[in-house]
Write a sequence for this structure.
């Protein structure tokens, strides 16, 4: 998987689907290459100062990277960007629970059906598909 590095890619992904869990927030959005072909999945990590100081933020990002290696590598869809946002619970959550959070978020986000939020027309949310 490739890494997201540009701010514009993070902002574009934030306009896609989002699933918040106790240990993390997962965002995703489909992307296309200039020639119209699907690219490999790309992933980015972010942790705000709300998580803690620099040492805590780096530790949270390291935990998220390792969780992605264990969970998302086989589940990431080509042609999609993913952003994992650390939460204060990223540091305190048990490892197995953090992995389950990521598994559940990925599962829910891939089953998502687009739905517009009536208050914020530029923000996409999702509803679970029951078909």
């Amino acid at each position: 998987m490739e890494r997201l590095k540009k701010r514009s890619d993070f902002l574009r992904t934030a306009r896609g689907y989002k699933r918040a869990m106790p240990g993390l927030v997962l965002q995703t959005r489909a992307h296309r290459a200039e020639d119209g072909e699907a690219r490999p999945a790309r992933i980015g990590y972010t942790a705000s100062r709300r998580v803690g100081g620099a040492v805590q933020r780096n530790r949270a990002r390291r935990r998220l990277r390792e969780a992605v290696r264990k969970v998302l590598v086989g589940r990431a869809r080509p042609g999609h960007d993913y952003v994992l946002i650390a939460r204060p619970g990223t540091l305190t959550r048990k490892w197995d629970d953090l992995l389950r959070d990521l598994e559940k978020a990925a599962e829910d986000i891939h089953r998502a059906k687009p739905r517009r939020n009536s208050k914020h027309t530029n923000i996409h949310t999702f509803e679970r598909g029951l078909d």
Observations:
- DSSP finds four helices and seven strands in the chain.
- Residues 118-131 have pLDDT under 50 and may be disordered.
- The beta strands are 2-3, 17-20, 24-30, 42-46, 80-86, 112-116, 124-128.
- The first strand starts at residue 2 and ends at 3.
